[in-house]
Write a structure and sequence with these properties.
This protein has eight helices and no strands. With 193 residues, the protein is an all-alpha fold. It folds into two domains: 5-57; 78-192.
Length: 193
């Protein structure tokens, strides 16, 4: 009983991943199975060879669900290109923008008479919603920029965030990192020191 075409394709693909050319693959096959050709192998031989090649390759990379996915209508929509640029600038995934779109389009909770939010960027059709996603990403970008400026000022002053937390008034303790006006005020305070 010879091996299946699926096993044969798996062997060839793994050999390519490991960087083996045809001669090197045949040499490894001969060492592991005693057979130089895949047509002479039986399923047990194929299993041994596949296991050996997987060991050489190392652990398989696992990517997060839908990683690297780009909405299908990206080429047609300049707004989506703007969203993509903002996400890339901040190092965020499309799922971050989709969570914003979900909240903007009514995904705050199931209320009577309300529609659930749109779960994918491809499904957002209203230009107002796309502009709202861009605006929310701009706000996030400004917050991150202000937070980075505060970090630089703390380094200049040779202080850390725990010191900064002790200088902040009670209603804003722990909340200042997400509030744009408070971030700007803290930055101005640090620059003046």
């Amino acid at each position: 009983m010879s091996i299946t075409n699926k096993d044969r394709r798996t062997i060839f693909a793994l050999a390519r991943e490991v960087g083996l050319d045809d001669d090197a693959r045949k040499h490894v096959q001969l060492e592991i199975t005693g057979k130089q050709s895949t047509t002479d192998m039986v399923p047990i031989d194929a299993g041994k060879l596949i296991a050996h090649l997987k060991k050489l390759r190392g652990p398989a990379k696992r990517y997060p669900r839908r990683a690297g996915r780009v909405p299908g209508n990206l080429r047609r929509e300049p707004m989506l290109q703007k969203i993509e640029a903002l996400l890339a600038d901040m190092g965020l995934s499309w799922e971050y923008a989709e969570s914003i779109a979900w909240r903007i389009t009514g995904g705050k909770g199931e209320q009577p008479g309300s529609q659930p939010g749109v779960k994918r960027m491809e499904w957002v059709r209203d230009d107002r919603d796309l502009r709202a996603v861009v605006a929310a990403l701009h706000v996030e970008q400004r917050k991150r920029h202000s937070y980075a400026l505060i970090g630089r000022e703390l380094e200049r002053l040779q202080k850390d965030e725990t010191w900064l937390e002790s200088q902040i008034q009670p209603p804003w303790v722990g909340k200042w990192k997400r509030h744009t006006k408070r971030l700007n005020a803290i930055h101005e305070m640090l620059v003046a020191m």
